[in-house]
Amino acid sequence: MTDQILKLVYFMFGDPKKNSLEHRLFNTVAFVNGALNIFGAFSSFYLENFMVIFTLNFVSGILLTGMYFVSRFKNIFHSLFWPFNLTILIYLSSMWFFNGGSIGGNHYYFIPALVIATILLRNHNVWIVYLVYAAATATLYGIEYFNRHLIKMYPNETERYLDAGGNYLFVQILTGLLIFILTRNLNIERKKSDALLLNILPETVAEELKRNDFVVPVRYESTTVLFTDMAGFTKIAETMSPEELLSELDLFFREFDSIIKNHGMEKIKTIGDAYMAAGGLPLKNNTHFIDAVLCGLEFQRFMNLKKQERQRLNLPYWELRLGIHTGSVVAGVVGTDKFAYDIWGDSVNTASRMESSGIPGEVNISSETYEKVKDFFICEHRGKIQAKNKGEIDMYLVKGIREGFFDSDNVHKPNQTFLRLYQQIANKELAI
Q1: CB 233: neighbour CB atoms within 10 A?
Q2: Is 205 part of a structural domain of the chain?
Q3: Within 263-343, where are the H helices?
Q4: Is residue 101 one of the residues assigned to a domain?
Q5: Of all residues in the chain, what percent are helix, strand and coil, respectively (each to 5)?
Q6: pLDDT tens digit string along 274-322?
Q7: pTM recorded for the entire structure
Q8: What is the Cα–Cα distance from 156 to 161, expressed in whole angstroms?
Q9: Residue 110 in contact with residue 102, Cβ under 8 Å?
Q10: Are 150 and 243 in a shared domain?
Q11: Domain boundary among 137, 170, 199
Q12: Do 135 and 261 reside in the same domain of the chain?
């Protein structure tokens, strides 16, 4: 039931995912005021100045409703800012003369009207809006003061109190609805902005940044860094349109993001066809080396699946170079206008060399990582491999999960023995 109501509200006034707060507010206010004015026009038959009041309500109601439809389905509410406000001002100013002027209840509406106008303001000087509303009310008070006979007064005090009280009550309800709409939509906007921030920064880092306006760099003595790169990227990219290339990379990186998230790793960044992630930060843990290798194996299985699909279609395929290294890094946030969470240190460089010197389609790891994961995974020693700016370093290929540690139905899935030992390592870290 609630979902159906929300769908109706989103259809009528705009979807928070597609329409801004100002746009949805404009649609809501224009529709509600337009509908109420039209209703008020047909509820004024008993009044002495029926035709004038009917015309004012009906015409303003039609104009506001028309603006709602144009704004809702043409998305040009910014262009309707002044027509909307002038319609409201002309209507309220006209009704001033038929509802007792300053001693009636009509003047209460000028305050929420001004509040709405300032909220909807865009690319206009706020002082102009205030001056327009101030000039309108000052003019009305001046006319009333010097030409009291132009104001239609109430026949008795009872009717004045009833009209003023009714208008005051309605303005309270209108203001309450406005506050409810703003509060709800501000919460939606806050969630959207928080979600966008969390797409850039880890949650704990984002919270620190919001709380302190800066993030203190942190040194992590034990982390595992994972690098990937597409082998032959430039050659294959030349055979594809930019749109096809972007679509392929998006497909791969979306899957990588999902795998990384499932294993508690932190995506650091992508640069072109390169993908970088790290484990053991910003929340420290003692299983990051296992997590990184599991991610690497899943990456390569996914890439191999896509390779087979493209081979069947006689299309060029991608192969992934992947390197992993365990060591210390420094992590922090750089930039002021565009924040970026990044890591630095020799361990990052070593992980990058693991990748660049790696065999496509394999999970290439350093000796530091090997020493921590050898009890869980089958690893082959590649020997000492020449790495740029590193000289000869020992490298290993991870071939899969060790026998007795994988599920009987799926050699790629850790079994209960694997998970039990994994949990023991995790608990050791928590006890520190």
Answers
A1: 17
A2: no
A3: 288-312
A4: yes
A5: 60, 20, 20
A6: 999 999 988 889 899 999 999 999 999 999 999 898 888 888 888 899 9
A7: 0.65
A8: 9
A9: no
A10: no
A11: 199
A12: no
Domain check: are 106 and 155 in the same one? Answer: yes
Distances (CA, A) of 325 to 104, 284, 391: 78, 16, 16
Q: Which residue range forms the structural domain that includes residue 313?
A: 216-431
* Radius of gyration of the chain measured on its C-alpha atoms: 33
- DSSP β-bridge partners for residue 271: 274
Q: Enumerate the H helices of 221-327 as residue ranges.
A: 233-237, 242-262, 288-312
Q: Which of 22, 57, 28, 60 is nearest to 43 (CA)?
A: 57
Q: Please indicate, yes or no, whether residues 193 and 238 belong to a single structural domain of this protein.
A: no
**Which H or E run includes 197?**
helix 157-200
Give the whole-angstrom CA distance, residue 250 versus residue 244. 10
Q: What are the beta bridge partners of residue 223?
A: 327
Per-residue burial over 126-154, b if 16 or more Cβ lie within 10 Å, else e, is: eeebeebbeebbeebeebbeeeeeebbeb
> Given its phi and psi angles, is residue 324 left (phi above 0), alpha (psi -120 to 50 degrees) or beta?
beta
The Cα 30–Cα 36 span in angstroms is: 10
* Crossing angle for the helix pair 50-74 and 81-96, to the nearest 10 degrees: 170
What would the pLDDT profile of 143-190 be if each residue is shown by its tens digit?
989 998 888 887 778 877 877 787 788 788 778 877 877 777 777 777
Same domain, 110 and 21: yes
**What is the C-alpha separation between 413 and 205, in angstroms, rounded?**
32
Helix (H, G, I), strand (E, B) or coil at 329: strand
Q: Environment class of residue 9 by beta-carbon count within 10 Å: exposed (0-12), middle (13-18) or buried (19+)?
A: middle
Q: Which residues of the chain have pLDDT under 50?
A: 431-432
Token pair 């709405």: residue: 116
Taking CA atoms, 276 is separated from 206, 221, 227, in Å, by 19, 19, 5
Strand, helix or coil at 242? helix
- Pair 313, 374 in one domain: yes
Q: How is residue 334 written in tokens?
A: 């750089």
Q: Name every residue whose Cβ is closer than 8 Å to that of residue 410 and which is 6 or more positions away in sequence.
A: none
Residue 14, in any domain of the structure:
yes
Q: Is 123 a domain residue?
A: yes
The whole-angstrom separation of Cα 376 and Cα 310 is 32
- Read off the CATH number of the domain in which 271 is found: 3.30.70.1230
| Residue that finishes a domain, picked among 199, 227, 243 | 199
Examine the domain organization and report whether 143 and 72 are in the same domain: yes
Cis peptide preceding 217, ω within 30 of 0: no
Report the pLDDT value the prediction gives residue 429, as an integer from 0 to 100.
Answer: 60
Closest C-alpha among 240, 255, 253 to residue 317: 240
Domain count, the chain: 2
Cα distance between residue 379 and residue 360, in whole Å: 16
Are both 231 and 191 inside the same structural domain? no
